Structures are given as C-alpha cells and as structure tokens.
Amino acid sequence: MESVVAGVDIGGTNTVFGIVSSEGNILARDTISTNDHKGPEELIHIVSNKIKELLNNLRTQIPSLHLAGVGIGAPNGNFFRGTIEFAPNLKWKGVVPVAEWFEKELSVPALLTNDANAAAIGEMIFGGARNMQDFLFITLGTGLGSGIVVNGEVVYGHDGFAGEIGHVVMDLKGRICGCGRKGCLETYCSATGIVKTYQELNPSASKETDARIIFEKALAGEKEANEAFRLTGEMLGLALANSVAYTSPQAIFLFGGLAQAGEILFKPVRESFERNLLMIYKQKVQILPSRLRESDAAILGSASLIYKMLEKSS
Amino acid sequence: MESVVAGVDIGGTNTVFGIVSSEGNILARDTISTNDHKGPEELIHIVSNKIKELLNNLRTQIPSLHLAGVGIGAPNGNFFRGTIEFAPNLKWKGVVPVAEWFEKELSVPALLTNDANAAAIGEMIFGGARNMQDFLFITLGTGLGSGIVVNGEVVYGHDGFAGEIGHVVMDLKGRICGCGRKGCLETYCSATGIVKTYQELNPSASKETDARIIFEKALAGEKEANEAFRLTGEMLGLALANSVAYTSPQAIFLFGGLAQAGEILFKPVRESFERNLLMIYKQKVQILPSRLRESDAAILGSASLIYKMLEKSS
Prior knowledge:
Two copies of one chain form a homodimer.
Chain A: E1 2-10, E2 14-21, E3 26-33, H1 40-59, E4 65-73, E5 77-78, E6 83-85, E7 95-96, H2 98-106, E8 110-113, H3 115-126, E9 135-140, E10 144-150, E11 153-154, H4 191-201, H5 211-219, H6 223-247, E12 251-255, H7 263-276, E13 286-289, H8 294-313
Parallel strand pairs in A: 1-4, 4-8, 9-12, 12-13
Antiparallel strand pairs in A: 1-2, 2-3, 5-6, 6-7, 9-10, 10-11
Helix pairs in contact in A: 1-2, 3-8, 4-6, 5-6, 6-7
C-alpha cells in the first residue's frame, strides 16, 4: 500500500491542489477558480471530487494507492479550528469550516493553516530546513507572509494566528496598509512594496510597472531600480534582525517572486541584517533562498501538514 | 521525604539564593556579594556551601528534606550549555560553566538560564500564568528583559539566546544602547529609559532623579512626570503589539520596579497596545502585572527551572 496526501492551496484567484507522495513528488495536480462557485461549500465539494478523480487515475498505475489525509493552506487559515476566518482576500464572509467539510467529503483527516505556515512546514519536510528545529520562513509575494518554527513546530499561538511578521509596524507614520494601519513591514517589503518604492524614486515611471519589470531594469543597470532593491533589502534586513531577538532561529528562508531576484535582493538584505543584529546573534543566522520550487510550494506545503502529523504519530 | 529545590540568582551586584518548596514557599534564603571573591568558581563554591548550611538548618525541623536540584538565573545565561557567556554586567571573562560547577558541588541536577526566562517560568509554575501555554514575560528594570513562552515551553532558540525583546530596534537614529547599537526598546522602556525621557522633558531636573522619584512626582500631579510615563507606555504598547504578531500570546506580564507604578504605566501601555494591534489580535491579549512578589521572584524563578523539569518527567 502506498500512502499519499492531498495538498490544497486556496488562493484569492485560484485553488490549486495535487496528490503528493511521501518523497515530496507531486504525482498529479489540477487548478480551478476559487470564486466561480455558489460559495465555499460548493468549492470544497468540487475540489474533493477532483481529488477523487486524480486518485482514481493514479490507481490505474499504482493500484494500492491510499489517501492518508488532506492538508489545506489558505489566507487567515486557523490551524486549531480548521477554519478560514474573515479572510480579506477571499469573497467569503465569516468563519468557514473548511477542514471539517473536506473530512466529510474525503473521509480522511484534514488539517488547515495559513499559506505561509504551510510553506514553512513544506520547507521543513521537503526543502532546505530538513534538519532544522528553529527557523523563519518569509514569503515575499503581494504581501509578506511568515511562518515561525520553534523546536521543530510551527508557532500557532494561543488562538492559531501567530506569525504575522508582515504586519509588524516599522514606521507609525508610514505607508497605508491593507490591514487599516500604517507602516507595516509588508507595505515596504513585498512585490507591491517595491513597486511603491520604485515609483517614489522615479515618479515618471509607468503606473503599469511590477516587481518583475523593476528586477529587469535593475539587471540592466537602471539606478532607480537598483536603489529600490537596496532600500527594500535595507528594511527587510532590519526587520529580520529584530525578528531574531524573538526566537533566535538558525536560518531565515526567503520565498516568493521577489526572493527569486537573487543577489540583487539578498545582498542588501544580508548586509543590513548583519549590521543590525544584536552582538550575540552576529554571524550565526543564515539568510537562505527557499528550496521549494515556486510552482510546487503551495501543494507541497499544504500536503506537508499531514506528513508532519504522520511523522509525529509514528 | 519532602523534595525541595535551590534557586540561585546571580546578579551584577548580589547573588541571592534560597530553598523553595514545591508549593512555591521560600523556606530559607541568603544573599552574598557577587564580586567579593577570587572569581566565579569561588563564588559558586561559597554559595553551594551556604545552600548546604540552609538545608541542614531546615532538617532540624523537617528531617526528611531532600534537595532535588538547583536552578540558576543569570545575565546571558545559556540554557543549553549551562554557561554564562560574556555577560556585560558581570566582571567574569569568557564562558563560565556555572551549572556544571553547581552539579559537582551539590551532586544534584543544575539548570541555568537568563534571569528573565527564569522569572517567566516562575510565573508559569507559581504565578499568574499557571494555566497558560502562550505568554510573554517582560521585566522592566535597569534594562528590559523578556521571556517568551510557546506551547508551555520557554523559547530558547537554536543557540539558547532567544527572547531579547529589549534589543528590538525601535528607532535606528534613537538613543545609544549599552549593546552598542541605537534605538533599542530598552533605552526607552526601562527604569533607565524613563529617567532619560523625563530629563528630556524637564532639562532642569536633578541629575540624581530615578524612576521612583518620577513616579512620586507623577502621583503628585507633575505634568512632565506624567508625560514621561505616557510616552514610556506609548512606546511599550507599540512594541508589545508588534510582539504579538510573532507568537500570538494569551497574555503579557509586566514585572519589575517600573511595572509597580501600576495604572500610571499600565493605562497608557494598554491604550497604545490595543490601538496598535493588528485587527485579528484586538481584545484578545491581556496586559497583566506579574503575580510574583518582587523580593521572591529571582529565587522562585530560578527554582522553577527544576520544578518545570520535574513536572515534565513525571
């Protein structure tokens, strides 16, 4: 019998899902729109049926295939309750019992957490944090998400909502954040943040610009684009140095579109990080690129919630 | 047989120690100078002999008394190694294997951590956090110390040095800190910090002023003294709101001289805290005074390191 796990990532636009082997291979996958349905219950019904289809197809090659569980990553996902709660990026209202619905549809255990926590567990089970007990995982996408791992476990906090480093206030008079406050880290250090920084440096730049265009301009030697990466790295390095004072991690993994810029981002991050670290932490903490492939991370991360549970119970 | 634990707190000036019952009563205690000795090995030899004396005296009343272990709190104490490392407030050089020496002297297990972590465990075993799994413990003394508890365990980090919230940089161009950097939280929110704030508000104030004098002036209605508490509370509330985004604790305990100011400090802290919290955390996290008595906390906290260990192994 070969046990596999379903990984589901519910995003603002698309819901991606797949079947993941215990070695971290995605054996099958599919994507559907998150919002073209009557509501979340219908979405979960359709995804569950598609997961059954994927499993049936795989069974033509591996007849002994057995589904051990389904892991779900979603914005504002609450690990303790298995619910998605008041997610600003989803069109659903209130508290949605997603894990419970998946358990009913698929008759296997379901675990849910936010997407950044899921990816952090993915890094721990299948990526660069395989032998680490204490690390931070930072996703640099539209916003800045984070997963904090202490003693080999994701920190969920008393209410299941720990790990919102993107909403640490860096400047009380700073940029307006989607959360309703000002100066949150993610208003500077994210794909959206670097665009804003670039536009401040270069007011005549096209309104249509995005982080990828700025990256290409920086590679081509444009001064303002390089300066935008330097300022982003400077701020992120300081925020990460402050973060070390909480949990003293062994490493910090950077993931997401912006992290793929490579040295153009990592160099100023590392310089600012080391400069701003408290003495006892200097030269001890690595800033590393995530070893999860961008296209696989959402499914792998979600599935690893179940593999992590199986690891503990074995 | 009644098991008791020795608690030792090594401070910059004095070393206090005592014998603690499992109910959290200090059955006997003593204090000696930290520095009037040839070096740390002699200090630990003398303290160990005095602990033996205290035990022998107690045995005249409770003959079955049994020493289960010795817990030690000290600046820059490393839990994993049982060492005090490069402590800026102690006159010792390098890495000092304090726990090992105590184990040899007393033939019982010895555990060591920094004083704020020890007090956090004291709050968990004997104080207001008895039923809490996730909380922060903040000491407002000469500096700002912190202990972070996640899932019922102090966070030590990969190197044993986690929990230095006092050295989160609040303002890169701010006050010079003893750690060599600028704008650390403890340069504002500590007994030393409030004196500086007060002197900035009232440049003609006596150089001799201290946090207690400012407290008394504030009670007497002096505007600058009240403003100094308000500004201190404002900054601490913001820093604590940011801290919640890491570990989402159920409560934050404030301990130490400054915390004894009561509402004059707690009111502006709570107001700033709630105002600066991310929406998902609002109205969920209590800011509470520590329930450890100031005079007992150092000994109780250190001893609770051993009680915590015994709890886990039972």
